């Protein structure tokens, strides 16, 4: 048997998690003399001392729950004995009080990217096909297959063609207040730097989201100027074959231009990296997410842009984030996004506790508070310089909170709409996640998952739990992998298999 | 120039619509002496007499609006001069008051269908792959391509493989009251008769919608008994290639059984046909939808099941439907579904007026009231024998109201979940709609659309507007086409091109 190990995070914690695969049996004695008085599964918590009924259960130095009954030292602390705390009140938060001494700038790091006319830099060279309405998606998917088969071989510098499918555009309450989210998102999606500014739009003709409205966008977007011949309206075409031919003609024009793009060496400050976690376990907050946080700090030190997201996983740690806001305005924007989501969930008659999954719980996460503490570790230590509503594009570099649902597919789509050119996705339990528009680096929180899914997981942070690597080690390793993948020197597994999620744009407004 | 024509529907109507392509110019004199005092576009309304400010504008014998100002005979009646009426109050409706003398039964009509063990009859022979969560969709799509390429040629009696993709299963508020809709729908989707009872489920492992929960379903579903080896859990697999191989093995077992299925002659009473309209114009309610209504009556007379749907398009005609309820219970269920949708829309700060599209308006439909009158024509004249909440399966034969959004994609997915084996889709403006699970017959309201989209539209009802055919003629033609397509004797255009919508399951609950 391996040596019994636990991980305690902060000095004041009164619980720690069991490291060993398959957990540890009752009677196990750790090096420090602590003895388990019941079996504890891997990743689950053990009481480091007696905890009286009503007393706080502390992990990450934060109260993640209250004891429902007296808990003896060496007990397994699971959901049954844990009372979830209420969410932090939004009106009594400290804002911009934590003056972080900026870490020294990191100079000299570069990657090989595609410089666009608007100054942005892509990591891939992709033809994105925008659609104003879901009704055209069958046709666009049909044409995309022909492009892949017949046209892409003629344009070897182009990495692929991606129909920007969504379920929006008609049969929706387009004047609902929340409709700003999908409209803005589909608009900004077209501008993702990986599409090189080569925008073409397929429209049906009678849809609610008329191309003019999509291209104009919302009050907070920059209108898209589309060449007249880059809009194909299916209702103007003489039959299906004519539609296909017309779309192919327009696509080929863009492919010719995309094919002229060449990678060039650019500073790492041109990167826009999204951070996400999914299928989290108790190790996520100890190994993978802190490593991502460290890499995030490195990127910020390079002058790059880093987004973290997932409102329902940030909500219970908001009191740790508002102090890190760069100023009052940013702090208030953070609170505004939390408030919006509280109301969105309340309208559906649920609250933030709806987030945790059976897998999270099996992995040792008792509730959303504990999950949130692990999730926000992805944000590192940098000041938060900007807050984006879902689908907005950043105007600053540095650490940015991009408000999105925590749902993996929706967060992914929304970060792409916000302009990320690479995503880092950490997972505890494992998920075959991938995005067609930007490369995704998948990091597991434990080695066992990386070993089992050897052809899906790109990097493991598991050595941290075993004491074989530090957060800094893995953080640097991830940072270099980000530069390699951004440059096209390394291909993550999702791109190897072309294993991609359907694009799930967030529509918080009703369908009609 | 063609002879000027208008269509007046009911004797008491004070408006009629212009039939001629491209509309009619000011000065046009009709056979009855009516003279246009301004240009009127095709499908748009002309005032048959002077209508004073505040007076009702009547079409279909119903008030579709009130005159905002005095309107002279021969004027164009557009949105600008029309005040929309309020929706019918739900607490003062007549229920089951209209005792319809049943039309005589139609005997002897049959089709060639696939009889299932549970007694249901399919019109196609398809392997449907159920997923408990969106996270597995990339893998399932990957495998489906391999099945198509390598396995289907070995099983020539199988028509295809369809990944039952959805955006549900995790990152959702699974205990929200409205979560019953997607859970029930994904559950019942697996039971669609076209899949022959050959159910296999792909799960990730850590998702909220655990396979047990999906298979158990909701209080109103019949639990699915799944063989142990028909569940593949990706987190249990040793890497991606192992996942693919495992899914292929399970798929092949089902393909072998599906390949044994043979079409046999069954009575038309075994049909379950869904009716939907999309991209409607002013002709939809005059030509295509009444023809669908006539065919619906024919099907009901054969003892078959017919579903109509689209709550927001029924809401303003609900006072015409509750009297047609077979009994008090069905009438109350109709009202319950309207009420649910009123509240759903109100939670999103909109109302039923959010339905009409720019295309509807361009096509002559001023508002949702006028659109609704045309939409409910699809229901024919039969009594309404049952009402289904979204995704429920019918327990009766005859005319059924299956509550769904009007959104084409969502209505399609929900009707498939409710068990339709064929859909009739009428369109005014034209849309390249198609479903992978059931054949879709697309009918246009005008000949010009069928001529322009000659390789997409299966049948036109346009001759009705020209006086060259009656509603009965086209209704019978559609009825025979339904039997031919159900039997596999005729292939609709969507199947010819394999032009299919992404499956859009209705999730009225929040994402998290
Ligand atoms: Ca997460
Ligand atoms: Ca996530
Ligand atoms: Ca990619
Ligand atoms: Ca409709
Ligand atoms: Ca519809």
Overview of the molecule:
2 copies of one chain form a homodimer. With 512 residues, chain A is α/β, with parallel strands linked by helices. Chain A folds into 3 domains: 1-83, Archaeosine Trna-guanine Transglycosylase, Chain: A, domain 4, CATH 2.30.130; 112-258, Rossmann fold (3-Layer(aba) Sandwich), CATH 3.40.50; 272-277 and 305-428 and 442-474 and 486-497, no CATH class. Chain A is built from 14 helices and 21 strands. In chain A, the strands form 5 sheets. Chain A has a 7-stranded parallel beta sheet, sandwiched between helices. In chain A, strands 1-2-3-6 form a 4-stranded antiparallel beta sheet, with no helix packed on it. In chain A, strand 15, helix 5 and strand 16 (305-308) form a beta-alpha-beta unit. In chain A, helix 2 (180-189) crosses helix 11 (408-417) and helix 5 (288-301) crosses helix 13. The mean pLDDT of chain A is 96. The site of one calcium ion (CA) has 7 residues of chain B, from strand 15 and helix 11.
């Amino acid at each position: 048997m391996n040596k019994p190990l636990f991980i305690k995070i902060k000095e004041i914690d009164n619980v720690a998690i069991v490291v060993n695969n398959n957990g540890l049996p009752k009677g196990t004695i750790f090096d420090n003399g602590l003895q388990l008085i019941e079996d504890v599964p891997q990743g689950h918590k053990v009481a480091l001392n007696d905890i009286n009924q009503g007393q706080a259960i502390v992990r990450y130095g934060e109260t993640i729950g209250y004891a429902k009954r007296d808990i003896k030292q060496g007990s397994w602390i699971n959901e049954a004995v844990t009372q979830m705390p209420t969410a932090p009140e939004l009106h009594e938060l400290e804002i911009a009080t934590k003056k972080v001494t900026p870490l020294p700038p990191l100079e000299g790091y570069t990657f090989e990217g595609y410089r666009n006319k608007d100054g942005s830099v892509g990591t891939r060279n992709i033809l994105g096909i925008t659609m104003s309405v879901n009704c055209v998606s069958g046709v666009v998917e049909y044409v995309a297959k022909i492009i892949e088969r017949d046209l892409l071989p003629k344009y070897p510098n182009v990495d692929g063609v991606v129909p920007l499918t969504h379920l929006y555009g008609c049969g929706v309450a387009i004047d609902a207040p929340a409709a700003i989210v999908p409209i803005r998102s589909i608009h900004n999606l077209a501008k993702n730097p990986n599409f090189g500014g080569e925008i073409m739009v397929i429209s049906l003709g009678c849809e609610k989201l008329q191309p003019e409205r999509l291209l104009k966008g919302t009050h907070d977007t920059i209108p898209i100027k589309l060449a007249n011949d880059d809009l194909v309206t299916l209702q103007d075409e003489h039959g299906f074959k004519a539609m296909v031919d017309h779309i192919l003609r327009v696509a080929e024009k863009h492919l010719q231009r995309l094919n002229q793009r060449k990678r060039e060496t650019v500073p790492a400050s041109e990167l826009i990296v999204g951070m996400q976690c999914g299928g989290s376990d108790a190790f996520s907050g100890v190994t993978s997410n802190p490593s991502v946080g460290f890499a995030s700090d490195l990127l910020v030190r390079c002058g790059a842009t880093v987004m973290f997201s997932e409102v329902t996983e940030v909500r219970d740690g908001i009191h740790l984030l508002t102090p890190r806001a760069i100023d009052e305005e940013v702090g208030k924007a953070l609170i505004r996004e939390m408030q919006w989501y509280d109301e969105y969930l309340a309208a559906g008659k649920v609250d933030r506790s709806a987030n945790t999954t059976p897998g999270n719980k099996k992995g040792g996460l008792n509730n959303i508070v504990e999950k949130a503490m692990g999730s926000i570790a992805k944000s590192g230590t940098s000041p938060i310089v900007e807050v984006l509503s879902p689908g907005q594009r950043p105007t600053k570099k540095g650490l940015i909170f991009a408000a999105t649902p925590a749902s993996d597919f929706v967060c992914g789509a929304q970060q792409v709409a916000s302009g990320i050119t690479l995503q880092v996705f950490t997972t505890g339990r494992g998920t075959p996640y991938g995005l067609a528009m930007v490369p995704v680096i998948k990091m597991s929180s434990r080695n066992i998952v990386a070993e089992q899914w050897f052809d899906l997981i790109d990097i493991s942070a598991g050595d941290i739990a075993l004491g074989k690597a530090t957060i800094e080690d893995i953080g640097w390793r991830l940072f270099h992998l980000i530069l390699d993948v951004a440059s096209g020197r390394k291909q993550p597994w999702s791109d190897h298999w072309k294993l991609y999620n359907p694009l799930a744009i967030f529509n918080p407004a009703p369908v009609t």
